[in-house]
Hints:
Blueprint: H1 2-21, H2 24-29, H3 33-36, H4 38-55, H5 58-78, H6 88-106, H7 110-136, H8 140-164, H9 197-220, H10 224-244, H11 247-272, H12 279-298, H13 300-307, H14 316-334, H15 344-351, H16 367-399, H17 404-424, H18 433-451
Amino acid sequence: MFNSAKSYIVDAKNDFFARVQSSKFALFCADSLIFKNIDNITLVLLILTLIATAFCTSGVIGLFAILTSLSVAFKLLVKKGERLVASKLDFAITLFLTVAILSLFGSSLFLLSLKGFVKILIYIVFYFCAFHFLYSNRKAIPLILAVIASLVTFESVIGILQNHSSILPISTWQDTSNLDVHEVMSRCYGTLKPYNPNLLAGYILAGISSVFYLGAINFLNNNKKRTALFFAALLLSFLALIYSGSRGGYLGLFAFIAAMMTVICLYVKNTIGFENIKKRYKNILIGISAAVLLFIVSTPAIYKRILSIFAFREDSSISFRLNVYEASFRMFLDNFFIGIGLGNQNFREIYGLYMKTTFDALGAYSVPLEIAVEMGIFGLLAFAYFICLSFKYCIEILKSSESNKYKALAASIFLMLTATMVHGLWDTVWYRPQVQIIFWLNIAILNTLILKPKLTPVKEL
Length: 461
């Protein structure tokens, strides 16, 4: 049923594109200098979109994302023979978007919900266009991941420097009532706008999988110097994330490390064998692990921050979030099927009817809960289906007989999904364009692995 429905939709869209591509306007544009260089223009716009995530406001990032999408759409409409392809993952994303549309038209605050819907629409259109570009330009994938890795490393270095320069907090980011002066963190936030330590943590968690991928590829190519370089970059990212003081980020980092060690152990077991690993490498790993634990235990500010995860009502920040979770859950129950509508402005208007006095909030501070509130149970189920399907495809590739370089790409996407989803249980920075752009690019890359076009051999990745 799915295959027939997908085939019908794709064939209908391809018939539309075929008609447009045969028009006089398309034939006129096909001779233009812009069209002849459209793939290069798209790649530049895609890279500029990524660079904008580190330095620009949400509006500028959105503008670059729209320009990238328009560039791909222009190619689709003009290049003769250009066709759409789709996978089951595309169906899951389209299903999620469909529920978002229903939630929009079912909202009592339509105009406010429309603003939230437009943001989701921009991200998903960006995903489809990025996928279409990468599907026919697979050689660009390593470059895209290298740009992400470079930006994450840059933000990590800036974050570490900010911590050692003892920057002043821009807002009340930490409950200091039970801490002495040596136990208060100087939480870094990088160059991301708006300045927010939790956003920096979410950005790093979305991007460190790209650092892992580059390290893994160089390891498979037996380039020890570059492998060590990317491993060092990975440790820098871990350190910057710790300095961010984001407790949700800590949980995401723990999940990332656990997933990464699982992937590495499976690789070693199936290819090298634990007994064949040189003793000095085992000693290096044990030494680094011991050094990290010693660093955490011997740094009161970090140690106390990690322990505060388990403080619950004794910590004012956690207590505040528990109040928000309680109010948001009641909102979900009262708007069970299609939710209240989309966007944080829409959320704030209705949240006032449920919140406890003085506990105002910008969102539900949990991605699954936010989706449940905004889009109801069907939105939550559609999102869960999409995420579970993404994990399923990653695992299938890791278990397949594909090359290790191919699997390294699937492993990096698996790590990104693990880190961002665990962090998303306790925070909603996932909705920020800085995180969304990297997230949807990874999903676009995953879709190129699923459909496996024969334009470029997988081994070249």
